[in-house]
Structure formats: C-alpha cells, structure tokens
Amino acid sequence: MYGQSRVGDWESYTSFLKVRQTVEINQKIICATSGGILILDKGSESFEMLTNIDGLADTDLSAITVDKNGHLWIGSSSPRGIIQIYDIEKKQAVKTFDFNLSEITDIAVSDSVVFVAYSKNLDWGILEFVWHEGKFIYRQIYNPSEENLDYITSLTIRGDSLFAATNLGLFVGDFKRYILNYPQNWSILSGFPLNSVTVLKAVDFEILIVASGEIWSYTDSLRQVSVAESSLLDVTRSSDGTLYGLTKWKLVRFNELGEIVMSRKPGAECNRLETLNDGNLLIATNRGFAIWRVDKEGFEWYTPNTLISNVYSAMAVLDDGRLVAAGREGISVLTEYGWYNVVPSNSMWAIRDHDPGDFSAFVADTVQFKSSRVWSLLGDGERILMSLQGVIPDTNEFGYPIGGGIINIDLTEPSELVVYDTTGGFINPYNDIGYMNVRGLFIDSEKNLWISNFGAADLDKKITVLAADGHWFHIPQTGSGGIPQKLENPTDIVVVERNVMLMGSSKDDGIFVLKMDRDSDNDGVPDVLDGDADNDGIPKEEDDDDDGNGILDEDDVLPVRWVNFSVNQGLANNTVWSLVSPEPDIAWILTAQGLQRLTFSSEYSRVTPYFFTYFSGVPFGEGSKVIMDGRENVWVSSITSGLYVLLANATPWPDWNGFRHSNSYLLSDEVTAVAFDNKRGVAYIATSKGINSLRIPFAEERKTYDHVTVFPSPFRIPSTTPMVIDGLMDNSSLKIVMLSGRVLRDIKLGSPSIRGYQAFWDGKTNSGDYVGTGVYLVAIYSETGESYVTKIAVIRE
C-alpha cells in the first residue's frame, strides 16, 4: 500500500455507508455520504470514493445536486456547513463557500440561480447564488418567515418560484419579481392547511409534499393524495406514475386511492428515496444504497468496501502491518485486500470466511458482545484486546448474558472471542447492576495483562492483573501500609520496569507509582501476583497468612508500595489522561494543562518535572492521548484541537502549530487515537470524521541498503513531484551520476531533499538545469562507509 508513497503523503479512510442524498449523471449514481462522495458506475458496477484528498473541503456530506455545467453542488453536515462546487470529471474543487454555517440541509438549482438551505447557531435561512460573468457568485440571504424557524428541510424551484419546506408551513416566493430577504415578500402556499412540512419532491411538473404524515400534490392546483399510516421521510413517483413512500425502515407503494398496497423492509435504516432514469427507485440508507427493481419487486444492494464507522477511539498496528481500529460501532481492519469489519450484535451471529473477491464490497462479520466507547486497544499476535468505557450488561435473544469490560478476540476466528466482565468475577463493577468502565491496558514483558478499572467500586480492585498463566490478581491499596491519597480514577497504566508501574488518574489524583518489591518465597514472582506466596501448598485465596510471616493477611501490611505525586511535586495538573515511558526513570505525561517530562529517582521516591510544559496552550480533555513512535518521538492528540508532535530532541514537528484540519489533510480537529506502522513509516490518525494516514520520516532504522527502491520509473521530467529514493539507512548522502562517471547532482546529508529514509530528486543538475533523456546511476553512501548503486531511467518531455 505504501510501496510508492512519499514522506508527507496523506491518505483518508472514511466510511461511505451512510448515504444521505444522491444524483444521477449519465450512467453514474453519485452519493453524498458521511465519508465523502461515493460513485457507482452502473455499467461496470464498480465504486469510486472521493475524500478531502481529492479536493473536498469536508467529507461529512448532507446534500448534493448538479448544475447546468455538470458540476456538483455539495453541502456538509453539522457541525460545519460548507458549500462547495465540485468538478466531478476533473476531480477538483471549482469554488468553496465557508460562511461559518452549522449545517446544509438542501440545495435547489436552476439555470442561473442556486438556493441553499442552511442553519447557523439555530437560525435558519436560504442563501442565493447567481450566475455572473461565467461563474456562480454568492448574492444574498433569504428569510422566508418573520418568526424563528425550527428547520428548513427541503427546497425546490418551479419556474420563477422557490418553495421552502419548514416547520411553519410551505413558503413560496417569486425570486424574479421580489427581494426575498424580506419575509413579507413570501407567502404560504394557497390552500395548504398544514404546518410542519418535512418533504418537497419535484417529479417532472408535479411537486409532492409531505406534512404531518399526509401526502399532497401540487401542479396548477393543490390536492391531497394520501394519509399515510406513519411518518414519511420521502416520497417519489416511478416512471409509470406509481406513488412510493419511504419510512425509516420501509418502502411502501400506494394505489390510486392513496392506500398502502405494499410494504417492504430494505433491512437498513433509510434516508432518501429517488427515481432513477430507468424507472427504478434508489433507497439511500445507513448501510449503502439499494435499488428497488420495479418489475421484479425486489431490492439489489450496493455497498462499497469501507469502514463500519467514521469514529474510532482506539487503534493498533499488528506485526503484519494490518491496522485495527475500534469504536462504539465495531472493529475495522485494514488488510491487503481492503476493509474487514467485526460488528457487535445482541441477536445476530454470522461468522464466515472471506476470500479476496469479497472485498469489492462491504465485508463484515457479527459477534455477540456489548459495545461501547473503546478506551484502549492492544495487538497480541492474531488477537486484540480492547477495553470498553461504560457498559451495562445485556442478554441475547436466548436470555444468555452479553457483557463487555475487556474483549479478547482472534481476528482469524472472531467467533472465539472471550469477554472479561463481571460474570466471572474478574473485573469489579461500578454498581450492583454490573456497570463497568475499563480504561488502560498494558502487556508487560512477562505477558501479564495490566488493567486500570476506572469504574471499580472496590478500591482494592482498581488495578487488576490477568497473569500469563490465566490467573487473576487484584492490587490492594487500602489497609496497613497504604497511603492517604487513594487511586480512585485510574486512566492509563504503564509498566516501566519489572515490578514497577506508573498510573495516571483523573479528578485531581495525580500520578501513582506501584512497586511490587516483596517476594516471600524468592521464586521471582512478587507476592501480589503469586498464587502461593509462601510456597506452602495452600492457594492464596484459601491462605489466611499468604506470605507466611505469622501475621494474618487482614492485619498485615500491604504486599506492595504505593507512591503518589501531584502538583505539590511539580505536576502541571493533577488530571493525567495518558502516559508513556521510553526509559525506566523517564515518563511523558499528558495532563489537562499540557505535556510534561518527568524524571524519577532510582527508587521512584522522588520525581523531577522538566521546567517546561509543552503545548500548554492546547486544550486536552478526556480522550486526549500521548503515544511514542519507533524513534521515541512523542505524539499528542487533542479531542478538540488536532495533533502535535515533539521530536526526541525536544523540537516540534513540523512546527508548534501541529496538524490541524486547516493546515493539513487532517479530516477533523477531533483526534481520538494514533497508531504507528514503524516498519513502513506510517502514522494512522483517528478523528471524528474518519482515519488519516501520514507517511512520516520516522520508520525503523534501516540496517542495510538491501531494500532500496526508486519511483516513479521511468522518471518523466519536468514533474511537479520529485523522484523518490526509498529505503535509505540513517545519515545517507546521494549522487546522481552519468554512466561515464560524471557527477551531475550532489544530495548531501542535511539537505532538505533527504527526509528520514527517503531522498528526493527533481531531475536537475547542481546548476539547476534538467538532465536529458537517458539512464543514470544513483550512488548512495552512509557515514559509516556502506554504499549502494542503482540505475534509473529518465525521460525528458
């Protein structure tokens, strides 16, 4: 996937399942979705997906139509209503209008004017754009009502009249004769008795209206067509004039008397209903779109290969390079073939094998576990472990319990998942009904799983350990030898060295150090994790004097030592969301006030914070995280304000402004997780609108030049993008050399043309002239004496 990408290249992975509105252009169905533009070529039945990488100003789209030039007009959903004119043939933006709106709900187009329904901070209005000197320009705002509107759902144009569906009725205005930014120049459609109009649909010369569940038709006069049985989301007519309606879960057909004579369930939550050029119907849903074949009276489903959701709160990269992203709606895995999804369900259980051919469409299996926000995710071979924040136990259709505290799932056999919850007594709940809130997970060098149980009711079960041999242990903190400040709200947990752990805590508890320094039977296993600490043959749970020191356990001192550090010892803030430790005595902690570097004494009895708090001006709330890449660079995510990187030498990358939606291809400033493919040099960034990938110059150090690749080949010049020499060892330099041995270009260590393991050549000599067509040598050499030579072909056009 990244074999021929450059350092600095971005990619966006968004979910195209939620189809909100569609248009048809020739043989293509073009959809506005929650992940961007989805295109189905009806001839080849193949999908194309466009995101911000293709020039979209936003990917969470709510409205789409086409103007006289064949350009798309698209509007984005809440909370960022952007209007964009897009050239679908050239795959590039024509014009973007960002008026700080909240949402775009509909767009109506005629030859020379375009109207856009919008909301801004709960105020509703209509924007007018007019054709002027060969382009559309913004002209003014229309306000159809003197009273405040709760919504404008639909717009349509008939002749010189603009119709607007609102909660106060169906407004009509003549935009050629009157200035419609004055409410008095609008009128309610004559004879229409109902308020709360939800749908307008222009079908040829007819306008279909839905209000309070009733369907009305307006041509030259107004007439009621049907009283529907339930609230309708949309209506249309097929090519033979048959009336169809759409509810949240059903497609219905009406007879000439307006009676429902057919009701069919597409099997997904529905959004819109459109009539296609061939007379069939398209149902836009939250799981792709279906075409209702009128002659066969059956659905044909079209779902692209995509993610189950756009929101993931935890990610990990497995050893084989697969990205695993987990969130409330399920698990998505990026494989070499495409996206594979695991979807939680209370009733469905469908596990099957998938071959490469399946990945031309949506691929998913369902498993039974209770879903919630995922706080942590770890990869362990083929298995993943994820902790869930906020789960109430449930039952399936057979009455068997379905829980979720920690999910342990094998991605090759997802049906064989293991759930660690209250049913086995392993994870302590928050209350009697079994509510759980589990956060940090960490696997130490002994393969023990450390768990910070934020929601445990029992203070002595806030930290739980699943040992490699399958035994469960809880770390006590109350009793003789404890400390006054208790760990009540553990967030992140890290094992910094054998038998020493660091734990963050929210709600003003600071940071805690746990030292397991008692081993009564000298077997190398600390007492607190030893099933028989005194080796007397009596299991811990049955032994009143577990360490054999002659003192009953209930009167004995704690088998561990706790240390607490707070603002009194120099922390910037006592709320610690996340932490990492590159060395045993060093930790980076992310507090509500920013990123701090801590240095601990050898016994962890004292801590010395670095005097400077990094990114202190950035807000870091619950869900913000700190993570370290393979080169010990520190990445810090904010759930409101983007992503920030502090290099190992304490300088920012690319600068102190970090990565924001406004200065990069980042899909959203709400960053929820970061994961690294350190072998390939790729950072994955989860946001509220999908996942980005960024090729970074921080891959694992190359030991040889055995895997050097050069692309593109041949290299055609002049070119806006340079040739890439990939796979360099650290501290490399290059020369571009003629076959005769003449050096044409020196690219030396420290040059901006070298970024990490990649070097770039623009096709020019040292004097700035383009080289001619021919075959050249690239001579690569390192400071330590290693060298490598490869040939490249250049075509000068």
Percentage of helical residues? under 10%
What would the principal axes of the Cα set say about the shape? globular
Largest sheet: 5 strands, mixed
Q: DSSP helix count?
A: 0
- Trace the largest sheet across and list its strands: 30-31-32-33-34
Rg, Cα atoms, Å? 31 Å
The chain-level mean pLDDT equals 93
Name of the CATH class of the domain at 11-276 = Mainly Beta
Unreliable residue stretches: none
CATH-scheme architecture of the domain at 11-276: 7 Propeller
SS class: mainly beta
- How far do the termini sit from each other? 29 Å
Q: How much of the sequence is in beta strands?
A: over 45%
CATH topology description of the domain at 11-276:
Methylamine Dehydrogenase, Chain H
Number of strands: 69
CATH superfamily of the domain at 11-276, please?
YVTN repeat-like/Quinoprotein amine dehydrogenase
Describe the overall structure.
It is a single chain. This protein is mainly β and 797 residues long. A five-stranded mixed β-sheet has the order 30-31-32-33-34, with no helix packed on it. Strands 35, 36, 39, 40 and 41 form a five-stranded antiparallel β-sheet that branches. Strands 62-69-68-64-65 form a five-stranded mixed β-sheet, with no helix packed on it. The radius of gyration is 31 Å and the shape is globular.
